[in-house]
Amino acid sequence: MSRTPILIVDDVETHVTLFTSILEEEGYEVLAARSRAEALALAETAPPSLALVDLVLPDGDGVSLIDELLSRNPDLKPIAITAFASVDRAVAAMRNGAVDFLVKPISPEQLTTTITNAVTGRSIGQLPEDSRNEVKGFEGEIGSSAVMRDVFDTLSAVAGSAASVFITGENGTGKVKAAATVHAKSGFRDGELVRLDCSTTPPDQIEAALVGALKGPEIAAQTGAVERADGGTLFLDEVCALPLCMQARLLNILQSGSVTPVGGVTPIPISFRLICTATPDPQTEVSEGRFRADLFYRINVVPIHLPPLRTRGMDVIEIAESELDRLCAREARAFRTLSTEVKAVFLDHDWPGNVRELMNVLWNVVMLHDKPMVELADLPPYLRAAQLSTRPKGTNGATPPRQSRDDAPSIPLEGRTLAEIEREVIEAAILAAGGSIPAAARVLDVSPSTLYRKLENWGKPVRGFRKR
What we know:
Shape: globular
Largest sheet: 5 strands, parallel
CATH class of the largest domain: Alpha Beta
Oligomer: single chain
C-alpha cells in the first residue's frame, strides 16, 4: 500500500496514539497535531492528502479548520471526527468540504474503512453532484417544507459514512426506502443490503435468522443476516420488536465485530454498516423496559426522523402532483392537475397511512378515471365524504385577529401534574385558535413543530381539533 500522509488533529492524547497505531499498521504515514494552530503549521510544512479533524479543539472550531485547510490545499480530503452524535455538526462539516465523518468511539474497522473510502473516492462528499442529489430517491422525497429539507441534508451527509443510522417514523413515511437509499450511496453499496424484519419473523426463528445456525439433529443449516451482510449493510427493520435476549446478542455482535451461529463455537469476524428502523418511539421503548438502553445508545449514532405527512403542509400537494405525473406517464392517462376541491381535501385529510396512503389514492384515481383534471368525484369514497373545514371567519368573512397570551385559556392547577396541565393548555389553545397549530403556537410562544410532535406522541390527529 502506498504511504499516503494523513494528518490527525485531536487534542486527546489517547485518541491520537490509537489512531496513529491503527493507521501506521495499515501502512500510512501519520502526522499528529493537538490544536488548530499546530495543524495549520504542520500542513504548511508537510501537506497531507487526507486529514482526520476533531470538531472540538482547544483553540478553535474543527469545521472552520477544515475550511482553512482546504483553502490552502484544495486536493485535501478531510474527515470530521466528533465525540458527540451530532448530525448538525456533521452536516456543517460536510458542507465545508469534509468527505466523511466519524463519531467516537471509533473501532479500528470503522477507521480503516472510512480512510479506504476516502482514498479511493467512494465517500459521499467525493461523488459527483448528480449522484449526491440521487440521495433523495425514496418515496416522499419531494417537498419544500423545512423539516424535509433537514431530512434530505442529513441523508446526504451520512449516506457515505460508516456510521449507524436509526430511522424512525410512522408507518408509510418511507423508512424502508430511506434505508435502501443510504445503502445505495454508501461505501458498502458493493455488498448486499440484508433486511431482517424483526416484527414479522417468528420468535422461535429470530435467533437463527439473525446469527445463522449450523446443521444439527433438530435444526437445518442457515446463514444468518449478520453473516450475509458482511461487507455490506445489515438492515434491521422494526428493531424495537427484537426480544430482549436477542437485543443482548446483537449488542455483543456490535461490540466484538464477530458472530457465532447457533450450534457453533468459533466466532466469525464480520464488518457491516448498520441501519435500523422503528415505528414506536425508541426512547419510550427504553424507558418502559422493552428495549435495552445500552443497545439504543450504541445504534443511535445518526437519528433520522421521517415526519408524518399531516405535519408537512403543502408537501402533500407537491407529492401528489409529482406522483400523478409519474402514474399518468406509466399508464398512459390524461390527468395533468388536481382541482382546487381535491387540493383542499388533501390538505385537510390526516393521512394516517402517510405517503403510502397518498400513493394508493392516486393509483386508484388513475386506474379508474382518465381526464385532464382530478376532481372530487374521482376520489375514493372515504375521501369524498370528508367534510372540508376552514379556519373560523369573523362576521365580515375576515380572519380573526391574532390572539394574545391574555386570550389563552385559564386552567385550574390544584391537584394536577405538570404533564396534565401542559396537555390541557395546549389542547385548549389549539381549540381557541380554531384548530390552527401555527396560531396556537404563537399564543403559547413555542414553535409549531413542538405542538405537532406533542400531538403525535399523544396520538392526537392534528386536524381533528378543527372538526369538533
